From TrEMBL:
Gene3D superfamilies: Hypothetical protein af1432 (1.10.3210.10). InterPro entries: HD/PDEase_dom (IPR003607), HDIG_dom (IPR006675), HDOD (IPR013976), RNase_Y/CdgJ (IPR052340). GO terms for molecular function: hydrolase activity. It comes from the Bacteria. This is Phosphohydrolase. Pfam families: HDOD. Keywords: Hydrolase. Residues 21-216 form the HDOD domain.
Length: 292
């Protein structure tokens, strides 16, 4: 059994091999620097965003989408930023650019359409749960939900022969997939995903939420871990949001997760209803090529 330090070194070496494909884009780095400087304005941030026409269009589309439910149209990037907030801008820009970046990472083992449908569905549930739990900056949980399975793309590209049979056997059941990854290569896609978020400079709380989304009991009892774990669980219970090509399956949350969230399981149908209203539009905004 590998030690924790050995495992971390192996994961870092794995990411170093694909660093050219998974490094954060310059525009995300500049946005974070500008926001951290604490003297930025909506106009100064808009000037950065507008250097990428595609990102500008996506941010405007998001601000006008069902995700925000505004009753008037937002016409400028600076106005969109003033409405959704600087931190939300950063998190949404990160979501858009990360999805584009990691879509360049090919894998013969991944059904790309199913992968991104699951990712977006999980992201929307995570944001919904964060809002219900009154978590500060709920868009950061949208990002964690969107990126929670990115480690899979890295693993399946690097170890296709080792993982192929286990993926076929698991039939898309993510808990089984993660367990078999740990048995075959010593770590799972969630741990690789947490390391990816570290590489992209996301907060440690989100790194942990992604790294332990299949094993929340092994992590500190944080609201972020519980949210991403529950979002992933609830997404897998739906045909639209399941990570399995075979549709919904009986994914169960870790005992005590609802209690950690301070919520009751009876709200599940309401969450699915909210997310279904936003799902297709958000999917096509975040990643237009992820269509049926």
């Amino acid at each position: 059994m590998n030690s924790v330090s050995d495992k971390r070194q192996e994961i870092r070496a794995l990411l170093a091999d694909v660093s050219a494909l998974v490094s954060p884009p310059e525009i995300v780095i500049r946005l974070r620097q500008a926001i951290d400087a604490q003297d930025s304005t909506s106009e100064s941030l808009a000037a950065i965003v507008m250097q990428d026409p595609n990102l500008s269009a996506r941010i405007l589309h998001i601000a006008n989408s069902a995700m925000y439910g505004l009753n008037h149209r937002v016409e400028t990037v600076s106005r969109a930023i003033s409405i959704i907030g600087q931190r939300a801008l950063y998190h949404l820009a990160l979501a858009v650019t990360a999805s584009q970046t990691f879509s360049k990472l090919p894998s013969e083992l991944v059904n790309v359409a199913v992968f991104w449908r699951h990712s977006v569905f999980t992201a929307l549930i995570a944001r919904n749960l964060a809002q219900r739990c009154h978590v500060l900056h709920p868009e950061r949980l949208f990002v964690a939900g969107l990126l929670h399975d990115l480690g899979s793309l890295v693993l399946y590209q690097r170890y296709p022969d080792i993982l192929r049979e286990s993926l076929l056997t698991a039939r898309g059941n993510e808990d089984v997939v993660a367990q078999q990854e740990r048995e075959l290569i010593g770590f799972d896609h969630a741990e690789v995903g947490g390391a990816l978020l570290e590489l992209w400079g996301l907060p440690e709380s989100l790194q942990q939420a992604v790294a332990f989304h299949h094993r929340p009991g092994a992590a500190a009892n944080t609201i972020e871990v519980a949210i991403v774990h529950m979002a992933d669980t609830l997404a897998n219970r739906t045909d639209q949001g399941s990570a399995s090509e075979f549709g919904a399956y009986a994914s169960l949350p870790h005992p005590g997760t609802w209690k950690t969230l301070g919520l009751d399981e009876s709200i599940t149908d309401d969450i699915w209803k909210d997310v279904n209203l936003q799902f297709m539009e958000t999917l096509h905004v975040i990643l237009p090529q992820a269509r049926n």
